[in-house]
Amino acid sequence: MTHTDLSPELIRTLACRIRDSEYILIGAGAGLSADAGYDYLESAEFLKRYPYLERVGVHCRYHSIGFEWPTKSMEWAFYARQLEQDLYGVPPHPEPYVRLRELTDHANRWVFTSNADDLFCRLDFDPARIWTVQGTFSNLQCLRPCCADVWESRTYVERLLPAIDLNTGELTDRSLVPLCPRCGGDMMLNVRGGSWFVERPYEGQQAAFQGWLRKAVGGQLLVIEIGAGFNTPSVIRWPCEAITARHNGAHLIRINPQHPKTQFPVGERATVVAMRASPVLSAVATRG
Ligand SMILES: [Zn+2]
């Protein structure tokens, strides 16, 4: 059933579902981080921070993904400033993540997410129970790649930040462009953007997640899927529906204002809320 407003009955239903669940799987897409202030489609604030990107055609975070940058210097100056804001900065609105954690702390919980901003980890979810399916901004890798190693991005970002010309968006010292410590080739953020993606750092998370899921589907499993639309539905959205459809003891709570409709045969075992996460989680936490 799809809900479009927060009736007291819906709030109670969600609160009871969450409270009574032994196992909770959280599947989170870009919509949850957009609610926390990292909106990949937001343009006005983005261009205020990066006015020089307007002329190259990058008007929001989303445009920067897979973008063919005019120079490596501009590309790395952007990554450094983006990571400074989205990875090391304080999230503008952490509430939806914090509410979600508090509401589900009692349960045997796992998170899988396409978000590379490490917000689950930064907002005190157990890092041993998070699978960052698409990688993380915390790591850099070789773009070739010549090896399965990754390097902590922070060291590079700290070196790059003081060398950025804020008028041009270029580095004042182009020799600072990160190069692979092994082969000297180009580096890239360790996020899934092509066949070059180095998967190895996440294989342990994936194996642990699958082990947990085998156990969880034998009990009362609640799947809470938030903000996962149709950019890459095979990563979070469809797995959440498929897990629910396959296991009779599982129930799905989907929170998604734009794409609420389920496609897998989950029958009555889905509570769909066509709203943003922030007001929903806040209402459940305070009035549930
Ligand atoms: Zn290399």
Alpha-beta content class: alpha/beta
SSE string, helix = H, strand = E? EHEHHHHHEHEEEHEEEHEHEEH
Rounded to the nearest angstrom, the radius of gyration is 20 Å
The figure for the number of domains is: 2
CATH class of the largest domain, anyone? Answer: Alpha Beta
- As laid out across the biggest beta sheet, the strand order is 1-12-11-10-2-3-4
Number of helices: 11
Q: Can you summarize the main beta sheet?
A: 7 strands, parallel
What helical percentage do the residues reach?
25-40%
Q: Spans with pLDDT under 50 lasting ≥5 residues?
A: none
Corresponding CATH superfamily of the largest domain: TPP-binding domain
Task: Please tell me the CATH architecture of the largest domain by its name.
Answer: 3-Layer(aba) Sandwich
Bound molecules: zinc ion
Strand content: 15-25%
Task: Describe the structure in your own words.
With 288 residues, the protein is of the alpha/beta class. It folds into two domains: 1-37 and 93-134 and 201-288, Rossmann fold; 39-90 and 136-191, SIR2/SIRT2 'Small Domain' (2-Layer Sandwich). It is built from eleven helices and twelve strands. It has helices at residues 8-20, 30-35, 44-49, 61-64, 72-88, 95-104, 119-122, 153-160, 200-216, 237-246, 277-287, and strands spanning 2-3, 23-28, 108-113, 130-132, 135-142, 150-152, 164-165, 170-171, 187-191, 221-226, 250-255, 270-273. A hairpin with a 4-residue loop joins β7 and β8. The longest helix has 17 residues, at 72-88. The radius of gyration is 20 Å and the shape is globular. The two termini are 19 Å apart. Zinc ion binds at residues 142, 144-147, 180, 182-183, 185.
